[in-house]
Amino acid sequence: MSTTTTINPATGEKVAEYERITTDEALKKITKAQAAFNDWKRFSLEKRAKLMHKLADVLEDNKETYAQLATTEMGKVIGQSRKEIEKCALVCRFYADNASTLLADETIKTEATKSYVTFQPLGVILAVMPWNFPFYQVIRFAAPALMAGNVGVLKHASNVQGCALALEDAFAKAGFPKDVFTNLNVRSKQVKDLIESNHIVAVTLTGSEPAGRSVAAIAGQNLKKTVMELGGSDAYIILEDADLETATDLATFGRLQNNGQTCIAAKRFVVLDAIYDAFLELFTTKMKKAKMGAPTDEDTYYGPMARADLRDELHGQVEKTIAQGGRLVLGGIVPDRKGAYYPATILADLKPGMEGFDQELFGPVASVIRAKDEDHAIALANNSHFGLGSGVITGNEKRGEKVALQLEAGNSFVNKLVASDPRLPFGGIKNSGYGRELSGYGIREFMNTKTIWID
Ligand code: NAP
């Protein structure tokens, strides 16, 4: 029998072992999900909204348990785990309250007696999800998909299988009909057979670029719609009129939140020459001061990375960048302690062609880049095969907006770190993926946008 073992990254100790299911068992569950869809799609929006509100209540009522579980399985600092659960409830409520408006028919004036666009659910959606926001990433897909009348099957990241089961249980506790939301504890190599099932109509994946390429290729072969939320190497331009305290506060939190493992985290800091040295000095002071420690301690600023292999991979990227001429300003040494810890690290004077400039550094490592002027900064920010988030820090909002409009990314924020908000679309361009989650754009991704014409 094959199993998944979860490991506490703060201690390296085993947490639990979960039985994997075979592909045949997974396909049987998908067949049941298809049967559930046939009923679920007929539920009124009001009935679905009631259940979605109940799910928000269940999440809030069990906030501490779920937060502790996330922290144990992937090392998120406990306060941030609690915030993650709160955000899940917020997203559930947003879709419960707004789905009817977001999915309202659109009348289009033509020469017909009546012509309009209506939105109908597609069926069973397969979600392949990552560990970095083990509750939120799943809810971000499931709340709109289920409100729209689709049903979901989840292949979650192996290291957060406890969170996957907790979510399945939360849907059941909220009173959702059986098989409307199902967890499938399968290996990633089994995903191909699931996508090929006739019952799966679409796939959404949040994860790395290689996983996205593989899943999108299989789905493409099978002509199945996909939404891809992949990696990023978000650039934040620090203009010379920025307030340095604000810029370095944002940079420190942006780089260390979720232990440096956020897709939309600030990763590359493109700083104008006039303030480069001053920014680097203050940023280094603040990164050095941030407390690394056990994620269960309330005063810890950042904890361990989610897995030791990911930490080792990140360290390899740091060493490679230094060998390519990057300047190590802070950190860069694997600490001699139990757990998957990596210190706050700053690599400065990075240039295109270096690992820390070109690739995503998914951990507490900042890349600092010097720009001659504003145009050079924009060119450096856009010199990336990713295009997820981006930002501008400036004392002049109008100037910031002008720069933000020129950044090649799905999200560009001025004087604020990029964050997802259910009212606004979220997603990337280039190798950061395609399609959108959240808002009306997200809920319509997995719908049949259907034209009705009455002559
Ligand atoms: P990952 O290794 O790509 O894993 C993501 C999910 O895909 C997991 O469930 C994993 O299963 C599965 N998977 C991996 N390779 C697969 C394959 N070839 N076929 C089918 N499934 C496969 O990514 P991660 O390390 O969990 O997450 C980090 C990455 O996700 C970063 O690049 C980050 O930027 C990105 N991310 C993007 C967003 C966004 O919204 N754009 C949000 C969060 C994270 P196993 O665990 O069993 O391998």
Description of the molecule:
- This protein has 455 residues and is of the alpha/beta class.
- The chain has 2 domains: 3-230 and 429-454, Aldehyde Dehydrogenase, Chain A, domain 1; 234-414, Aldehyde Dehydrogenase, Chain A, domain 2, CATH 3.40.309.
- 42% of the residues lie in helices and 22% in strands.
- It is built from 15 helices and 20 strands.
- It has helices at residues 23-40, 45-61, 63-74, 78-102, 136-147, 161-174, 191-195, 209-221, 244-256, 273-289, 308-323, 355-358, 374-382, 397-405, 439-443, and strands at 3-8, 13-19, 106-107, 114-121, 124-128, 151-155, 181-183, 200-206, 225-229, 234-238, 266-272, 327-330, 345-348, 365-371, 386-387, 389-393, 411-414, 429-430, 433-434, 447-454.
- Strands 12-13-14-11-10-16-17 form a 7-stranded mixed β-sheet, with helices on both faces.
- α9 (244-256) links the parallel β10 (234-238) and β11.
- The N and C termini lie far apart (60 Å).
- The mean pLDDT is 98.
- Residues 128-132, 137, 155-158, 187-188, 191, 206-208, 211, 214-215, 229-232, 263, 360, 362, 388, 428, 433 line the site of NADP nicotinamide-adenine-dinucleotide phosphate (NAP).
